[in-house]
Amino acid sequence: MRQYGRVDELLFRTGRADDADVLLRFWSIAAENSGRPTDTREAVERLLDRDAEALIVAERDGRVVGTVIAGFDGWRYHLYRLAVDPGERRRGIGRALLERAEKRLVRWGATRLDAMVLADNSLGQAIWATSGFSPQPEWRRWVKPL
Ligand SMILES: CC(C)(COP(=O)(O)OP(=O)(O)OC[C@H]1O[C@@H](n2cnc3c(N)ncnc32)[C@H](O)[C@@H]1OP(=O)(O)O)[C@@H](O)C(=O)NCCC(=O)NCCS
């Protein structure tokens, strides 16, 4: 059995109104940034204003080392911005974030979670696969830029 002792030293918390700048810096180095528009301060502030609890942050000594957004729009349950500091990977932080995200969404009635994963993101696919997610090849995302 794998020990996740170091995860116990982390603080897991939800989002705070003043998180935007630190998150933008963190995601610029830790998140999967291909294939999507650049994050903006306004967009992050909108999330924190609308549902700060959707953001789950892992911190070590006040430093952000991981994030996930567990969003509920009233109908479906989506996970976004699963990211772990490159120097802190493979220590169970991603798994611990997903466990907390799942608990939050189950409290809102979730019976199914989803995440968008780039087809060539093997790191991402590894953690989703081991966490019980599987791809739905029969679906494609359709988008309309505004
Ligand atoms: C994907 C990511 C969040 C994983 O975070 P992490 O803290 O390293 O993951 P964990 O240590 O909790 O790993 C959980 C499991 O995922 C799988 N996994 C994670 N990293 C892996 C790797 N490099 N190779 C193979 N499997 C891996 C393993 O099954 C692992 O369990 P194990 O260590 O007991 O074998 C991290 O690599 C990351 O931030 N990647 C860049 C951003 C990204 O791609 N996010 C996903 C967007 S869809």
Automatic annotation (TrEMBL):
Pfam families: Acetyltransf_1
GO molecular function terms noted in the UniProt entry: acyltransferase activity, transferring groups other than amino-acyl groups
Domain N-acetyltransferase, chain residue ranges per copy: 10-146
Annotated keywords: Acyltransferase, Transferase
The organism's place on the tree of life at top rank: Bacteria
Family matches, as InterPro entries: Acyl_CoA_acyltransferase, Bact_Acetyltransf, GNAT_dom
Protein name from the UniProt record: GNAT family N-acetyltransferase
Organism: Orlajensenia flava
